[in-house]
Amino acid sequence: MIDFKNVVKTYPNGTVALKGISLHIDDGEFVFIVGHSGAGKTTLTKLLLGEEKPTSGHLIVGDYDLSRIPGYRVPHYRRELGVVFQDFRLLPNKTVFENVAFAMRVVGTPAKKIRRRVPAILNTVNLADKNGSFPDEISGGEQQRVALARALANNPKVIIADEPTGNIDPQMSLEIMNLLMKINKLGKTVIVVTHERELVNYYKQRVIMIKDGVIVEDKVGGTYE
Amino acid sequence: MRRYNPFYFILEALKSLKRNGVMTFASVAVLMSCLVVIGGFSLLVYNIDVNLENFGVMNKIEVFSNFDAGAGELEALERDIRALDNVEEVTHTTKAERLAAIKKDYDAYEDITDEENPLSDSFEVTYKDNKKVPELEMQLKQLNGVRKLTNRYDLAKKIENFKNTVMMIFLWFLIILFVVSLFIIVNTIKLALSSRKREIEIMRYVGASKWFITLPFIIEGVLIGAVSAVISFFIVKGAYSVVTRQMGDMTQVITTVNISPYNTLILLGFLGIGILTGIIGSLISIAKHLNT
Q1: Do B33 and B67 fall within a single domain?
Q2: Long-range contacts made by residues A173-176, C-beta under 8 angstroms, separation at least 24?
Q3: Within a domain: residue B1?
Q4: Which of B15, B16, B205, B292 to mutate to test the interface with A (most CBs of A within 10 A)?
Q5: B110-134, pLDDT tens digit by residue?
Q6: DSSP code for A83
Q7: Could you tell me if B290 lies within 8 Å of chain A, comparing CB atoms?
Q8: Crossing angle for the helix pair B6-19 and B21-55, nearest 10 degrees?
Q9: Closest-CA residue in chain B for A46?
Q10: What 3-state DSSP class applies to B115?
Q11: b vs e for A20-48, b when ≥16 Cβ sit within 10 Å of the residue's Cβ?
Q12: Residue A112 CA to chain centroid, in angstroms?
């Protein structure tokens, strides 16, 4: 469960990025967050990732109150999230397998469990045959699938995808979106931040539109014009 | 149950040290110079102190009586000396005792009998305040039965001054070297951080704890410190034995201290300073360049 209550975010330079956002996302929902650049999507994402704290208002994700979370708790909170970025952010000197394993290793997962779980996740994202490849040996769409596998590695409750299709061709974009839908069906909350109209309109899910730091529309099966 | 492989941290640190080899070398070289200066400086001061003590010149004036002074005069003289303001302690040595001491040290004087004793009695005067030594000397000279004084205060003062100058120069040198070491270590770790920037970013997003992310960099600092310390120890040991051998050949007046019993202490001291500097450097770098 994700709960924004009148969340305001003002940056030190005076920019008011969010002007009182209230929003509720249930467990297992699939949500598009849309809006033009500068609308406040990035700030919203940063708040969800625990990178920034609200200036006022409350933000609660699961058991964590992000408006008052102490710094040392942030890593624990992030283990409940899986994040996918526009630019994939894979480690170029590690293989597909190692990239996924890395996310598990750095949170102290035993090696035995890593060896068992990574192939299963790679299978979920249809990459079982690429586990020995390096990122520059596979396509953009495949790289994003590796990133998705990595986001799933620590079995998070929520997946946040920040412009996941921004760097890949339309064909591959559909594939990534289908995978995100599949992950959603497995019971995970999926939040996709994007400004790609066609995708949003095609999937007919809940669409939250932000403009100038406020929510201007929140509709299930909504469209993005 | 979360388990972390301790070798992971050390391995990451070693990889990073190797990757930024030039900076690693610079860090070790500068920190090493710093430690060698500390070591050399401490040993020099220690040797000066030991020699000053051996001379027995720190705060003493020796007063010699007239040759023909009788027991009563000597007693009166001792009383008069004791009555002076700046006097802490007086030790009376009779001329017979002095002759015996000389005979013990120099074989050539063995034949001299007590009747032939060319010496006079002496009083070793320990004073309280070395700023008032000139006054004390005046007062002692005016006492009845005093033939002459020897005060090695001037020599002691010269040695003291030399020691203080040495200390000041080394101290400044040390501060500069220390700042340079820190600066270079900070930059070495900064380089290590930036070459693992992507990795660190991912670690943060998947929820690696802060200590897990920072530990390899702190270990890097520790390794730089430890390696510098060990190399410095051998340099100081080697240089010291060469210098003391040469000094020993040159003069018998100056005593050089054998530092072998202090080996462990010196090594531990070096390790302490080196590792601490490395850790401080890492922490500064992490605080400056790693926002978790």
Answers
A1: no
A2: A173/A141, A173/A199, A174/A199, A174/A202, A175/A141, A175/A145, A176/A141, A176/A144, A176/A145, A176/A148
A3: no
A4: B205
A5: 777 777 788 888 888 888 877 787 7
A6: E
A7: no
A8: 100
A9: B205
A10: coil
A11: bbebebeeebbbbbbbeeebbbbbbbebb
A12: 27
Identity of the residue numbered A206: R
Total number of domains in chain B: 2
Candidate from A72, A78, A108 with C-beta closest to B4: A108
> Which residue of B lies nearest to A73 if distances are taken between CA atoms?
B209
Question: Average pLDDT for consecutive 10-residue bins of chain A (225 residues)?
Answer: 95 93 95 91 94 94 93 92 93 93 91 94 93 93 95 94 89 91 94 90 92 92 73
C-alpha–C-alpha distance, residues A101 and A109, integer Å: 9
Instruction: Tell me the ipTM for this assembly.
Output: 0.86
Chain-chain contact of A103 with B1 (C-beta, under 8 angstroms):
no
Contacts of A107 in chain B (CB under 8 A): 2, 206-209
Exposed e or buried b per residue across B219-247, where buried means at least 16 C-beta atoms within 10 angstroms of its C-beta: bbbbbbbbbbbbbbbebbbeebeeebeee
A57: nearest Cα among A131, A127, A6, A119: A6
The CATH number covering residue B83 comes to 3.30.70.3040
Helix (H) or strand (E) holding B41: helix B21-55
Nearest CA in chain B to A93: B199
Residue type (1 letter), B249: D
Rg (CA), chain A: 17
Packed helices B263-289 and B21-55: angle between N→C axes, nearest 10 degrees: 140
Contacts with B204 from chain A: Cβ below 8 Å: 75, 78
Strand order in the sheet with B60-65: B87-93, B122-127, B60-65, B146-151
Give every residue of chain B whose pLDDT is below 50, as ranges: 1
* Number of helices (H), then strands (E), in chain A: 7, 10
Looking at CA atoms only, how far is residue B3 from chain A in angstroms?
A: 5
Do B173 and B235 have their domain in common? Answer: yes
Q: Please check whether residue A23 touches B, CB under 8 A.
A: no
- DSSP 3-state of A214: strand
Provide the residue range defining the domain that includes B244: 6-54+157-289
